[in-house]
From TrEMBL:
GO terms for biological process: bioluminescence. InterPro entries: Ald_DH/histidinol_DH, CoA_reduct_LuxC. The lineage of its organism: Bacteria, Pseudomonadati, Bacteroidota, Flavobacteriia, Flavobacteriales. This is Acyl-CoA reductase (LuxC). GO terms for molecular function: acyl-CoA dehydrogenase activity. Keywords: NADP. It holds the Pfam family LuxC.
Length: 352
């Protein structure tokens, strides 16, 4: 059996391990080692929630379910079948991870290892508990990973390529420090929804998932709506009504109150329903508890605008309007082959 098959098999087993934490039923174990790993990860989940209050149990569960669903043999083989993967000469690839949502850097981690490279990881302090433990589990089931996974909080050295995710600000530093090495450097991106006024109640309710999952902190979270002139927001507010409980999360509520006070003092015109504010604004990145909106005159002009701004946009949610659109309610369920910023990570890694 070739090394690539061993690596695929290891990640399939990791997916099964993760799946154990997406139900309330405690699994049965074949041996003490399995039980110890289970209890150990339970502890890391608790630490992750205590360390970062945005990482609620629901949000961590959502992220784990997505990875449990993605890491199946059929998914991994379908993803990798698009590439000619010979045995690579292992290079050390540095990954600088964001920390906005649980396990946000996992896709890069998976990509580097499954190709056969070594990985050097610098995590965000906001999301530092889950991945190192999953890496330990990987090493326990596939010994060939031992010595190929390193986590560091120090200055990164000895790497031959880098994948770095940050803000528009930090990307300038990344360019300065890592510009001489092969790199993928990701900046701020946001997701948008294009509405026509013909959306069904079900579509608008599904859009609520795209807006509120992870409290809107992900680059795949919809932070802006494009609506036709004369659009009536009543149906939109009815559609998102089921998500009203989000206001009971203290940090979200504090952001809602603070941003509302700032907007009102600045005499901005707002539409709101007690847990979400809509503000007319040309920007893409909206604050927590706020979604920006902009009116459009005709679809052709809007398509031209979104093409011009494509380097600022991660997903476009729409219904049969764009070639690369995402269905309502699906932005937070990317496939393995849905690459951040549209940059093919595997192709990049195979060229090293």
């Amino acid at each position: 059996m070739s090394d690539i098959h061993n690596r695929i098999d290891a990640f399939v087993k990791l997916g099964a391990f993760i799946a154990q934490f997406t139900s309330n039923k405690k699994p049965e174990f074949n041996n003490d080692k399995e039980a110890d790993f289970y209890d150990g990860f339970k502890h890391q989940l608790k630490l992750a929630q205590e360390h970062n209050t945005w990482f609620t149990n629901n949000n961590i569960q959502f992220a784990l379910q997505n990875w449990a669903d993605a890491l199946t043999e059929s998914n991994l083989k379908k993803w990798l079948s698009a590439y000619l993967i010979d045995e690579v000469t292992p290079k050390k690839v540095a990954i600088i991870m964001a920390g906005n949502i649980p396990l946000v850097g996992f896709h890069d981690f998976l990509s580097v290892l499954i190709i056969g490279h070594e990985v050097l990881v610098k995590q965000s302090s906001n999301d530092k508990h889950l991945l190192p433990y999953l890496a330990k589990y990987l090493e326990s089931i596939e010994p060939s990973f031992k010595g190929k996974i390193t986590f560091t909080e120090e200055r990164m050295e000895g790497f031959e390529a880098v994948i770095a995710t940050g803000s528009d600000n930090t990307s300038r530093y990344f360019e300065y420090y890592f510009g001489s090495k092969p790199n993928i450097i990701r900046k701020n991106r946001n997701s948008v929804a294009v509405l026509t006024g013909k959306e069904t109640k079900e579509q608008l309710e599904a859009l609520g998932k795209d807006i509120f999952t992870y409290y809107g902190l992900g680059c795949r979270s919809v932070s802006k709506l494009f609506v036709p002139n004369g659009y009536n927001f009543d149906d939109f507010f009815k559609g998102i009504f089921p998500y009203g409980d989000i206001i009971h999360q203290n940090k979200y509520a504090n952001n809602y109150d603070y941003n509302k006070a700032v907007y009102l003092m600045s005499l901005f015109k707002l539409l709101e329903n007690g847990f979400l504010m809509l503000k007319e604004d040309k920007s893409y990145a909206s604050p927590i508890a706020t979604v920006f909106y902009e009116k459009y005159d005709d679809m052709d002009s809007l398509k031209e605008r979104l093409t011009t701004d494509e380097d600022k946009i991660q997903c476009i949610v729409a219904d049969n309007l764009f070639d690369n659109e995402v269905v309502f309610g699906q932005t937070q369920h990317p496939n393995l082959w849905d690459y951040a910023d549209g940059v093919d990570t595997i192709k990049f890694l195979l060229k090293l």
